[in-house]
Design brief:
There is one protein chain. The protein is α/β, with parallel strands linked by helices. It has a single domain, classed as Rossmann fold (3-Layer(aba) Sandwich), CATH 3.40.50.720. 45% of the residues lie in helices and 15% in strands. The protein is built from eight helices and seven strands. Strand 6, helix 8 and strand 7 form a beta-alpha-beta unit. The chain is globular and about 50 Å long. The mean pLDDT is 97. The structure holds nicotinamide-adenine-dinucleotide (NAD).
């Protein structure tokens, strides 16, 4: 795969899969706009990619919940690289975990303060929606582009506590992805959702069962993203692809 003269924006690029995607895209010759809220770590990771001397990386501090910051990230990408070929929405996570909610104090869904769930819905769903709205202007102009949303097996399964997460991910997997594809087709723009089962960006994910008896290595998820972005993946569009070791097909007994 060769992404020379291609530009990607990745959200959540300071850690986990957003970072790995950025590293891979640049190592294959592409330029990458890495955005995250964690400025210190982001700057360090951007410098490490540039030190390798393949594709170029720039860092843009951007909270995906803030539309003006999202537009600024898009504008920076266009100013630096002239185009946006891939928009990859990795920023996300379950609010009760990310906001460190005390399960003893807040045992069930209705007990958790609503602002915790606001965070989850805003980051996981509104963020990709905002980025779609912002980058589609540029992609329409250039008459090409790919938006990759990151769903989750939890979007298909539901969750009785992390309800923001299951709700948001389902919105990406089945509503937003198809809708963007419907809008984008006449402009040569594609949209695909990739929905992992457990991924070892955290050791705890090894506890989640799959049919194959293991969690995914992060690289397995990124390889699929890169394939879809590459010349070989151009016919994949408007679809949610589960990459979950068969968890979605397991017997519910
Ligand atoms: N790890 C898994 O098992 C798994 C499974 C299914 C889906 N996913 C999804 O994959 C994506 C990446 O997961 P990961 O485990 O690599 O994540 P991670 O926790 O390692 O990284 C998430 C990044 O998002 C950033 N972030 C948080 N809030 C933000 C905001 N408001 N604006 C911008 N950036 C923000 C964080 O600083 C962090 O760098 C997420 O959307 C997650 O829901 C993960």
């Amino acid at each position: 795969m060769d992404f020379t003269n291609k530009t990607a924006i990745s959200t959540g690029a300071a850690s986990g899969m957003g970072l790995l995607f950025s590293e891979n895209f640049a190592s294959l010759g592409g330029d990458v706009v890495m955005s995250d809220v964690n400025e210190a770590v982001l700057n360090e990771k951007v410098a490490a990619i540039n030190a390798k001397g393949c594709g170029r990386a720039i860092g843009v501090v951007c909270d995906v919940r803030d539309y003006s910051q999202v537009c600024a990230a898009r504008d920076r990408a266009v100013a630096e690289f002239g185009r946006i070929d891939v928009m990859a929405n990795f920023a996300g996570g379950t609010a009760v975990r990310m906001c460190k909610v005390d399960r003893v104090k807040y045992p069930e869904f209705p007990d958790v303060p609503i602002d915790v769930y606001d965070w989850g819905i805003d980051v996981n769903l509104k963020g990709p929606f905002y980025f779609a709205h912002a980058v589609l202007k540029q992609m329409r102009e250039q008459e090409s582009g790919l938006i990759i949303n990151i769903g989750s097996i939890t979007g298909a399964e539901g969750a009785d506590y992390g309800m923001d997460y299951s709700t948001s991910k389902a919105g990406l997997m089945f509503g937003l992805t198809k809708s963007i594809a419907q809008f984008g087709a006449k402009y040569g723009i594609r949209c695909v959702c990739i929905s992992p089962g457990p991924v070892l960006t955290r050791p705890a994910m090894a506890n989640m069962k799959t049919m194959l008896g293991r969690a995914a290595e992060p690289q397995e998820i990124i390889d699929l993203c890169l394939f879809i972005a590459s010349e070989k993946g151009q016919f994949i569009n408007g679809e949610n692809i589960m990459i979950d070791g068969g968890r979605n097909a397991m017997k519910r007994s």
